[in-house]
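Ticket #4471: structure export looks truncated?
Reporter: QA, pipeline team
Priority: medium

Steps to reproduce: submit the single chain below to the structure queue and open the exported record.
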Amino acid sequence: MDQNQIGWAKFLHTAPAVVSSLRALSKAVADSDLEKSLLELTRVRASQLNGCAFCLALHVDLARTAGISQQALDLLATWREAGVFTEREKAALAWTEALTFIGQQHIADDLYREVSAHFSVPEFAFLTASIAHINAWNRIAGGLRFAPGPVS
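Actual output as written to the record:
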């Protein structure tokens, strides 16, 4: 690793308040009523879209722990055609893609209505916060070139 490269350990030491804040957001989402497996699906998908190897490695492992099948993980990039995801999971994945690409394309009212039909108001809020959270981590870890590996 380049001496000037900021990896996970150096980031943790350099910006502990940022890590603490992001961990607080993670805890708030974890304490919500959303299924852990659904949250991990969205985290893996956003990490795929953002090309964040660090987050992808971490969340694929957590997805398995949350009970997501290897088949679902293998087919996640093609979730629309895969035939293995529930309507609720597909709505969450569509919302993940829309929020991840919000700077490139406006979120259509139809998508908002479709996704909100699958989630209560609090669930929709926490799902949105969770997607924003993983996108923040993707930009930090990807931008600072964190190498995949253990996180403490």
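Status: closed, not a bug. The export was complete when the record was re-opened. Leaving a note from the reviewer for reference: Residues 115 and 146 are 32 Å apart (CA to CA).
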